Amino acid sequence: MHLGHTHPAPAALSADARRPDGARRALRIGLGGPVGSGKTATVAALCRALRDALSLAVVTNDIYTREDAEFLLREAVLPPERITAVETGACPHTAIRDDISANLEAVEDLEDAVGPLDLILVESGGDNLTATFSKGLVDAQIFVIDVAGGDDIPRKGGPGVTTADLLVVNKTDLAPHVGSDLARMAADAKAQRGELPVVFQSLRGESGVADVAAWVRERLAAWTA
Amino acid sequence: MSRAALLVLADGRFPAGGHAHSGGAEAAVRAGRVTDAPSLEEFCRGRLHTAGLVAAALAAAAVLGADPGELDAAADARTPSPALRAAGRRLGRQLLRAARATWPSAELDAVARRFPKGTHQPVVLGLAARAAGLAPEDAAHCAVYESVSGPATATVRLLSLDPFDAAGVLARLAPELDRVADCAVEAARRAADEGADALPAASAPLLEVGAEWHAGWPVRLFAS
Question: Is the pLDDT of residue B1 over 70?
Answer without folding.
Answer: no
